[in-house]
Design goal:
The protein has 161 residues and is mostly helical. The chain folds into two domains: 59 residues; 65 residues, no CATH class. Helices cover 66% and strands 0% of the residues. Keywords: Membrane, Transmembrane, Transmembrane helix. InterPro entries: DUF1468 (IPR009936). It holds the Pfam family TctB.
Length: 161
């Protein structure tokens, strides 16, 4: 009788998940330090304004330990290959919006963000999505600026109204 035991492959530690675990532990430590150094907190109550941050920090620390153990054992599923192009389109759209918001106004800047995000998701050519995004952003600007009397950056298009 031959032994046909399944071949168990040993996986190496997942270094990206270990970095995430370290980040969670650092965030938990910062919350604890910040809460401990707060001034002006009332000490007459057992449960006061510092209780909830400590609970959050404790939960983050437990998640950090759990993530580290799972990463060290290699129990995380294999991740798919990341596509950098969509990320660059979205980040570029956000950068364009931030740079153009005061000069071009809300509608044009947000329309460009809409078009870049649509391109990142593989939808429509830019010659279609830029005007569509500008129109949709203008409707949003009109509702907020005129209907709700909120202040949004106005550019040349918004100055017409």
């Amino acid at each position: 009788m031959s032994e046909n035991a399944p071949n168990k492959t040993t996986r190496r530690p997942d270094w990206a998940a270990l970095v995430i675990a370290a980040g969670l532990a650092i965030v938990a430590a910062v919350i604890v330090w910040s809460t401990a150094n707060q001034s002006g907190t009332a000490s007459y109550a057992r449960i006061g304004p510092t209780t909830f941050p400590y609970v959050i920090a404790g939960a983050l620390f437990v998640l950090s330990l759990w993530t580290a153990v799972e990463a060290w054992r290699g129990d995380f599923p294999e991740r798919e290959q990341q596509e950098i192009s969509p990320i660059l389109w979205i980040v570029g759209g956000l950068a364009a919006q931030m740079l153009l918001l005061k000069t071009a106004g809300f509608s044009i800047a947000t329309g460009l963000l809409f078009a870049a995000t649509a391109r990142a998701f593989g939808r429509g050519p830019l010659w279609k999505t830029i005007p569509l995004g500008i129109v949709l952003a203008f409707v949003v600007w009109f509702i907020f600026a005129k209907g709700l009397q909120l202040s949004l950056p106005a550019g040349p298009l918004e100055q017409l109204f």
